[in-house]
Amino acid sequence: MAVQWVVNIYLLALGAFVLIGGASGDWFGLRRVFVLGLLVFGAASLGCALVNSLPSLLLWRGLQGLGAAMLVPASLALISYHFDKQQRGRAFGIWAGASALTTALGPMAGGWLVDNFGWPSVFLAVPVLAAATLGLALWRVPVAPDQSDLPLDYRGAALLATALALTAYGLINAQLSALTVCSLISAGLCAFLFVRHERSIDAPMLPFELFESSAFTGANSMTLGLYFALGGALFFVPFNLIQIQGYSALAAGAAFLSLTLLLGLGSAFGGDLIRRYLARQVLTSGAVIAGIGFAALSVPGVESRYLHHWLPGIVLIGLGMTLCVAPLTTVVMNSVDDAQAGVASGVNNTAARLAGVLAIAVLTGIAVQLFTSRLDQQLVAVGISSDIRVDLLAHADRLAELHPPADLSAAIAEDVSRLIDESYVYAFRRLMFICAGAAWLSALVAWVTLRLPEAHSN
Hints:
This protein is mainly α. Helix content is 79%, strand content 0%.
């Protein structure tokens, strides 16, 4: 649980503050917020490396998420501000490609650092990179003027951060039903108060007229669906590879290398496509192809070969996402005025981050239910006693990590282990079809909403 929260506290802070970070760029200047985000992220990383207790580590990880919440939307908004609409597709593609490549290289470099120098070295490397990036930002990034002379909507920011934090917290803790319900109800109340407040003031942090744009609403809805599907696959496929197929952690991580390389090398091309074809065609095609890829991941069984059973689906997902990532960002940023670039980027990043949290929470709950039901049926069918079934099913939330009781004979334990693997594969296949459905629903959203000229003003 402690390790889980070291990861989740970062995601919680990022999800809660990314929209505020985007809006802050519109108020205080994009480069200024980007630089501040770099400083916070670098200092927090240094703090993570030097702590000697879990509470302190969680605090610094949360501050890392806050820094990232300023960095990510500001970087996209800077691209939108300094490139005209004819150039944005390629620029966003290069941004997405660089992000994908660092995502692929990061875990490998981190693993090497941990193996050779210990886990603090991972955090110590970040301030060095942040300092280099800071130098480049101050040297090469022109200053974008403040977009508003009105004060920041602090009350709206507080309500929104609370609503998003409670939502993320409730979803992350989905296994704790009482806490989940309380968190989500409180999040809904804060969201209601946020909407009412934003509609009552002259300079809201989140102008709701943005959602009057069919392209803006459609692209963000599509982001939610696609990143839900991708988040689910990125979480459950490595689990399958390690627990069922017997891969090492490094091999399971490398299984997605083809997807990441496709995104990294092809995103500039994908961003360029939107200049030549309608966004509706590009995004619909990409989401359909990605959906086929997610569906293909339902093919592997208990014993499967990577090249024949896993790689085709992963490559199709990579191709589909390559067609979608940069064009989605381009549509979102082209559908708003330059003065609203920061908040538009924040909305899009909020959709992507919450989609990942939502995917893990919802799909984990579904997986446990499917796994438990299937395993119980299988155990009854082969005559396993009720005592053993009760003992096993009491820990079914471990999914494929579940082990037979130690007092079973070798033959029965082997049968139970086989049934556990088969039950997880049964659940996994249905999860991949859910991910495919989310991608295909995104394709439908693109086809329906991206018909107006604003979606294609590139």
